[in-house]
Design a protein that fits this description.
single chain, about 290 residues, Rossmann fold, N-(1-d-carboxylethyl)-l-norvaline Dehydrogenase, domain 2, 2 domains, 9 strands, globular, binds NADP nicotinamide-adenine-dinucleotide phosphate
Length: about 290
């Protein structure tokens, strides 16, 4: 199976590396070329444009920052969609928005291409070790055809429904992720302001019934104040923006998500956008060390 991989950031570079190690013939493209160097050194073929990347590809995987980047890669001046073979598959793993995914699915269909929205749960380390969880929208036959690819990149594939339903599920997950992290940061800051030591708070709260399990993986960053990004905070804010848009389209009321969205936006404006999402704690605390 020939695979084209477009988008080699924190997540995409690691997912592509697992496909390469798994024996797939891989062509790669990224806006910033040097992020492809390690993959090229291990046998991936470089393509200068998205359009060039998909020549001869059975499956095209995109793992890009946001809908604008996905749309530009697919339908822009050097976009790939018009160059894909009829019957080939486009799997979009980027976190986008359900309405956007459905529009991309329609565009794909117009070009004779099968489409899956396949966003992931899991961050840098699970991406590296092939332990991601996929939430997939699209037809069952296409999901099955991509089985060998999912197997190399992840540990679990959940077929939620038709196109747009994988990303719909991802909206729910990231809403919970963003709001629970913000609530935890506020809780820590409140406890500290009341004179409770941060170690005492972290020891008691992490692993307890009131804190989500993923927070254990953020403890080191909070303690050290070193927020090298596993999940850039600006993408958490972007995801909340899309949660709010999706909710507006359906009429769902999201008071928490909207208030969290603005807190993350203020953190981005204060200079924390490229840090890990857990830097929301430093922002809430009022740490000048950005
Ligand atoms: N990190 C996580 O833990 C995590 C977990 C689940 C889902 N996600 C989602 O996965 C996607 C990728 O995230 P990431 O963490 O890998 O982010 P990242 O490291 O910032 O990578 C973003 C990718 O998008 C490309 N890009 C950004 N803006 C672009 C534009 N205007 N035109 C063309 N390419 C553009 C970047 O190219 P350059 O290299 O040139 O900048 C890079 O390839 C996002 O949708 C994110 O929400 C992330």
């Amino acid at each position: 199976m020939n695979v084209a991989f477009i988008g080699l950031g924190i997540m995409g570079s690691r997912m592509a590396a697992n496909l390469l190690a798994g024996g797939f013939a891989l062509t790669v493209h990224n806006r910033t070329r040097d992020k492809a160097d390690a993959l090229i050194a291990h046998g991936a073929r470089w393509a200068d444009t998205p359009r060039e990347a998909v020549q001869g590809a059975d499956v095209v995987i995109t793992m890009l920052a946001h809908p604008e980047a996905v749309e530009s890669a697919a339908l822009g001046e050097t976009g790939f969609l018009g160059a894909m073979a009829s019957g080939a598959i486009w799997m979009d793993c980027s976190t986008v928005q359900p309405a956007f995914s459905r529009r991309m699915a329609a565009e794909a269909q117009r070009h004779g291409v099968k489409f899956l929205d396949a966003p992931v749960a899991g961050t840098k380390q699970p991406a590296q070790t092939g332990q991601l969880v996929f939430w997939v929208g699209g037809d069952a036959e296409t999901v099955q055809a991509c089985g060998p690819l999912f197997e190399k990149m992840g540990k679990q594939v959940n077929h939620v429904g038709e196109a747009g339903m994988g990303i719909a599920f991802k909206m729910v997950i990231n809403h919970l992720l963003a709001t629970s992290l913000l609530a935890f940061a506020e809780g820590l800051v409140l406890g500290e302001s009341l004179g409770i030591g941060r170690d005492v708070l972290l020891d008691a709260l992490i692993g307890s019934a009131v804190a989500p399990a993923y927070l254990a993986g953020k403890r080191g960053k909070i303690e050290s104040g070193e927020y090298e990004a596993d999940f850039p905070l600006r993408w958490m804010q972007k995801d909340l923006q899309m949660v709010a848009e999706a909710a507006y389209q359906t009429g769902a009321a999201m008071p928490l998500a909207n208030s969290a969205k603005e807190a993350y936006q203020l953190a981005v404006r204060a200079g924390y956008g490229d840090d890990d999402m857990s830097a929301i704690y430093a922002f809430i605390k009022g740490n000048d060390d950005v």
